[in-house]
Give the backbone structure.
Amino acid sequence: SQALLQEDDDEAKATGYHADAAQVDKAKFPKYAVGQTCANCGLYAPDGDKPSGGCALFYGKDVLAQGWCNAWEKKA
Ligand code: SF4
């Protein structure tokens, strides 16, 4: 595992990353739909049963499985 992406990191701010998907403001992020999390995003790379894993978007940083960002996409 790698360092966790923090919400106030520049790249996190740029993509609207939230450590807790439940905290996403739908008015600010209209793409967000309830139920979307990193865990079910196509860019997420789970790390066993750990609560965080890799994201293809954030090289060298882990994201929380319960997180979300504006680049969320449906798993293929
Ligand atoms: Fe999470 Fe997907 Fe955004 Fe990566 S691209 S931070 S896995 S929602």
Remarks:
- The chain has a mean pLDDT of 96.
